[in-house]
Amino acid sequence: MTAAQNRQILIGVHVTGAGEGLAATLCSVFENTPLPFGLRILPDSVLASQAPAVQQVRLAPESLVQRSSPAQPGAAACFNQLVSEPADIYVFLENGARVCPGWLELILAALDSDASHGLAGPSTNRGWNEQAVAPGCGATQEALWDQADALLARYGNACVPLAPLHSLADFCYVVKNEVVAAIGAADAAYTQGPCWEMDYNVRAARAGFLGVWVQGAFVHRAPRCAVLAPVHDGLLEANKRLYQDRFCAWRSESHPQAPPYHGHCAGDGCRYFAVPEQMRIFVPLPGNVAPALQVPEGTAPSAPPLLSCVMPTRGRAAFVAQSIRYFQRQDYPALELIIVYEQESDLPAGIDDPRVRCIRMPARTSIGAKRNEAVRVARGELIAHWDDDDWYGAQRLSRQAAPILHNLADVTGLNDMLFMARPLAEFWASSRALFRRMFVENVSGGTLVFRRSLWERQGRYPDTSLREDADFLLKTLRGGARLCRISGRSLCIYVRHDGNTWKFKEGHYLQQAAWALVPVPDCLLDDDRSFYFPATPGGTAETGGPQAPAMPMVSCIMPTADRREFVPQAIRNFLAQDYEPRELIVLDDGRDSVADLIPSHGGIRYLRLDRKSTIGAKRNIACELARGEVIAHWDDDDWMAPTWLSSQVKALRGQGADICGLDKVFFYAPDARRAWQYVYDGRTPWVCGGTLCYLREFWRSAPFADIDVGEDNAFVWSVRDKRIATNPDQHLYVARVHDRNTSPKDTWNRRWHSYPVEHVERLIR
């Protein structure tokens, strides 16, 4: 586990009213938070005249820590309860909010990207500030998934500071421990009204910590609390005045008569705003923080129930032995494993764990029938599918059991898992949208964990060996079971091999553009790698596969004409590449020759054409001259990171493609200091012309058209059969927008999305 993964994260849910929507919030946290976290329920004080009994109601399951309502009502007081406990990261979450896939990973990445980033929050659907970018988002699970995917595609890892007003909202308020150490508590004087979070943001800013909006993360807000909303609105004017009293230096000066309050604060745009010498930055944390609710006297904490793992198997003894090792690594304390097999050769020798039981059934028994028998003899209150050939992390069972034990779900399953192509030693990730297409209810059936009572009540698995798990899941959901879908990226790897029951080709299945080749995951231990990829004669111990062939020569082709101001930087970009076997071919047909700009370098060739030619014709000439088996476009006015060629070759070869490139491209207009991201969303696979990398043999079968504009798109969309791979490393390339671009840049088009120019400039720097 990395240092970032090892930090202590404490999530507090601020509950108002009678706690409507709390279960949905908690379930979404368990579903979409792959990192370890602690959880606190923070019930707010309510007006005694409106709901005198609510404070006595236990809002959360007894298994969750619920704090008593603070003596002082309001979000600030509840926030202070949260940050009074030790943690590295505090997450203050509004009751009714539903976090979406990737929310916390993106926010933590933004906080980690700059030491000055101290507070952060996501995009949302309702609110008064810039964060409310998705007002039309519905409340269905599918709508939330789609919105999260759309924001991630549009913004990626971008984050922007919310100056000059420092308006980071409190519905999902993520704060680093260093900020709390520097400025202390929130000001509880704002009680149940607004502005407390802006007060905290401003104090943090004056202590050197920025609040940033993480645009690609998404958290959906429920309608406002019926109990709190009128109280909140009634305090608006009073709290605006309190806020100005805290931060307006003009008001602290002596005047013949009391100065009036402003209708709106200009924030950093006003010279009187938040003058450090005239404001209070540090507020001590209260010493009388309300304790957690106590367990009734004489009640001992209950031990976790026994969890029975069921493993049908046949003819996979080596896999079974490895799977037993994964079972023995689990951190859930009460386990048994039931292996249902057909003949002795199905089992490895030397199973000596008393928690493992082996049940023999007749030959050719279906997987469904084996699962039924395993559940029948199971002693556990909980049942877990334990497939014999997949990789499991040590926290898989404890993470999946938690929502069930907290009574938030009856069945859990994993999604967003990696796929291991074992014969090729490759790892693939699918898009979240493709995963939803592939797996029923957006969970892998082989990862289900559920209450045994569901099987007893809803019926048995079908007597089949394909989809029996998915059909069982659908039956339980139709019977009213509650499903919690948990991110499985660090908990399970779907191992693909010749003996899989479900046959499909990873990297190709359904939508090839939605697959991405990824590095070997860190969660895979060395012993695990040795099992899946053993060293062989002629192979290497590190990869276990055949010796990798030599990296191919890449010929970078750069047509140019009268671009003297761009050419030197294009050459510097080429010389900075970390990919070794490469050459650059420059074809110049401009009126002003750039021969004097070409350095004497064995890897650079310059060709001066004696007549004007189209860009398509120049590309064909360069491909004819190329020595490499791979061709890469090298546009003279764009920026490429030093790892760009390595990334392109990896994408091309790793996905067995004929062509690769980017389908999401950053564009930068330095003169106007504007930036965009172009996001292709068409049905036909496409990659951007400036980013093309392809096999020279493929070019021979489909040369470029003799035209100046659109020759690259025509090449990509040629009728020739081909495989197009999408390079996921969009941050390694930035296209320049200027008044002499060959093709027009229609930045008003729906596929062009405004992007923080500072982010793109940081990439280039």
Please give a structural write-up:
The structure is a single chain. This protein is an alpha/beta fold. The protein is flat. The strands form five sheets. Strands 1, 2, 3, 4, 5, 6, 7, 8 and 9 form a nine-stranded mixed sheet that branches. Strands 12-11-10-13-18-15-19 form a seven-stranded mixed sheet, with helices on both faces. It has a seven-stranded mixed sheet with strand order 24-23-22-25-30-27-31, sandwiched between helices. The chain has 23 helices and 33 strands. 44% of the residues are buried. The protein is 27% helix and 21% strand. The chain folds into three domains: 3-242, Spore Coat Polysaccharide Biosynthesis Protein SpsA, Chain A; 307-532, Spore Coat Polysaccharide Biosynthesis Protein SpsA, Chain A (Alpha-Beta Complex), CATH 3.90.550.10; 554-764, Spore Coat Polysaccharide Biosynthesis Protein SpsA, Chain A. Strand 16 (418-421) and strand 17 form a beta hairpin.
Quick structural summary:
With 765 residues, the protein is an alpha/beta fold.
Gyration radius, rounded: 30 Å
Coarse structural class: alpha/beta
Q: Extract low-pLDDT stretches.
A: 47-57, 290-300, 537-549
Please tell me the CATH architecture of the largest domain by its name: Alpha-Beta Complex
Q: Specify the number of helices.
A: 23
| Domain unit count | 3
Shape: flat
Q: In the CATH scheme, what's the topology name of the largest domain?
A: Spore Coat Polysaccharide Biosynthesis Protein SpsA, Chain A
Q: Note the main sheet.
A: 9 strands, mixed
CATH homologous superfamily grouping of the largest domain: Spore Coat Polysaccharide Biosynthesis Protein SpsA, Chain A
Number of strands: 33
- The percentage of residues in β strands lies in 15-25%
Average the pLDDT over all residues and give the rounded result.
87
CATH class of the largest domain: Alpha Beta
Terminal-residue CA separation: 31 Å
Fraction of residues in H or I helices: 25-40%
